Amino acid sequence: MLEDALGYPLRTDDRVATLIVGGALIVASVFVLPAFVLQGYLLRVLRSAATGERSAPSFTDWGELFVDGLKLVVVQAAFGFVISIPIVAAIVAFLLGGVTGSEAGVAAFGTVSLLLVLLATLLSILVAYVLPAAMTNFALAGELRGAFDVEALREAALSGRYLVGVLFGVVLGGVINLVAGPLALLLIGVPALFYGQVVTYYCFGRGFAEATSADAIAPDAETDVDADSDASSTARSDTL
């Protein structure tokens, strides 16, 4: 997966233009709307990786990218909301502890707050692990409900292949960002930051596909299978 992930963004004819456009979208994301286009492209990367394509997609159909990106942000927000529930509850418990005015009340509500913060931390880790699977399944299904398909998410989350994909994505993306980050101030490293995002999402998509039945046969592989099948049929005919 390492070699495929690092080469994936560079195996397209318009790789230079794609990296420049992606970097420009990162910079322009401060205006919000370009961020949706960027998210739409990353969703396209997830779909491309999960279906076995070897090269990164191009920036085409910008309207579709924007709509898909908006949907992806909705998915991310929904999973983020799960984390926010115990955090809000912890804040409320802490404030109630102060209102009681008694040491026992402060201690009790303080303990509840700590437990809720711990729960929020555990949920954050769980969501961070499951979210790539949810995004990939949404990319493949083309419908928002695909992001909340419990069976598909559980199948992926319990697979070692998916775990490897997530770890590869996080580590590779982190290393690339670490190298490109200081150069981003000079704008030289911005395309590299985009490159790191594409590599990360490729690993997420491949990890999900390899862990589930969503892994589709790539066109080249499909051709090879057909050729092998024809060859085998011919061999059997000759033998008969």
Automatic annotation (TrEMBL):
The keyword Transmembrane applies. It comes from the Archaea. InterPro entries: DUF4013. The chain crosses the membrane at residues 16-38, 72-96, 108-131, 162-180, 186-204. Keywords: Membrane, Transmembrane, Transmembrane helix. This is DUF4013 domain-containing protein.
